[in-house]
Design a protein that fits this description.
With 255 residues, the protein is α+β, with helices and mostly antiparallel strands. Strand 1 (43-47) and strand 2 (55-57) form a beta hairpin. Helix 6 (184-206) crosses helix 8. The chain is 43% helix and 12% strand. The two termini are 15 Å apart. The chain is globular and about 60 Å long. The chain has a 7-stranded mixed beta sheet, with helices on both faces. It has helices at 15-33, 91-103, 116-123, 133-136, 157-164, 184-206, 216-232, 235-251, and strands at 43-47, 55-57, 73-75, 109-113, 142-145, 169-172, 176-181.
Length: 255
């Protein structure tokens, strides 16, 4: 399969859905390009327009670099495929993604990762600190969920949603993170922020000497300002478009 050639819009697919598929496929490629994948595991989903809470997610078994607009799965909140596909989804992803898409209408995209820096931070009892530039942007935006094993079972959904509350970052303790926002672009930017916060926290923790803590009010101000910029400007869209251009130039992609 050549991921660069599967780019023809099927006749039955609306222009709106196809645009979402293209954007989501790029998101998978960006996560791969940044080196944040977990081989064929983890998942990114995008909710389709409409009241049914259907969403798109990756076919299980493919590398992120092999995900295309055409091979993304369309599923319902039970993980059931709504269109024929030779691929199945990852059962471990349905509980998490269907829980969020079913409960939070303000979240249109969910990205789950557990890179080494993120996994290290969420293993620590204190979780994320807010004493660096990126960590400060997450002040008040993180919910914490106690590890219950691989997220396969429906009974955990309500507890995950309770842990998330009204936040947009869910720390899955001893596991990884899930981030969600009102668009793919905003979700990707939030993921990038969380990843940078984890990298900085790990690097600072490896150094000797005492940390210089930020006042809580300063961290809260930084978080509120970032949220406002993301919500009220094209900041995240510009960032996403720039990253796609850079990736396409380096990979000579011809979508």
């Amino acid at each position: 399969m050549n991921a660069m050639t599967d780019f023809s819009k099927p006749a039955h697919c609306s222009d709106e859905e196809w645009a979402l598929r293209v954007k989501l496929a790029y998101c998978y490629h960006l996560v791969d390009w940044f080196g944040w994948t977990e081989t064929i595991f983890n998942h990114i989903s995008a909710r389709l327009p409409g009241p049914a809470h259907h969403y798109l997610v990756n076919p299980f078994g493919l590398n992120y670099s092999e995900v295309t607009p055409g091979n993304l799965l369309k599923v319902d909140l039970h993980g059931k495929k709504l269109e024929p596909s030779p691929y199945d989804g990852n059962p471990a992803g349905f509980a998490l993604h269907s829980a969020v898409h079913g409960a939070r209408d303000d979240i249109q995209c969910v990205i789950h990762t557990h890179t080494t820096p993120i996994s290290a931070v969420v293993q620590k009892k204190r979780g994320f600190t807010h004493d660096d530039f990126y960590g400060a942007q997450l002040h008040g935006r993180i919910g914490y969920h106690t590890f219950e094993g691989i997220t396969l079972f429906d009974d955990e959904k309500a507890r995950m949603i309770e842990s998330l509350g009204d936040k947009h970052v869910l720390v899955l303790r001893n596991h990884g993170i899930a981030v969600g926002e009102s668009s793919i672009e905003k979700t990707f930017f939030l993921l990038w922020t969380v990843q940078r916060a984890a990298e900085n926290q790990c690097a600072a923790g490896a150094l000797g000497g005492e940390d210089n803590p930020l006042e809580e009010g300063i961290a809260a101000k930084c978080s509120d300002l970032t949220a406002m910029l993301i919500r009220e400007s094209g900041f995240a869209t510009q960032f996403y478009a720039a990253m796609v251009r850079k990736m396409r130039a380096e990979r000579a992609m011809h979508w």
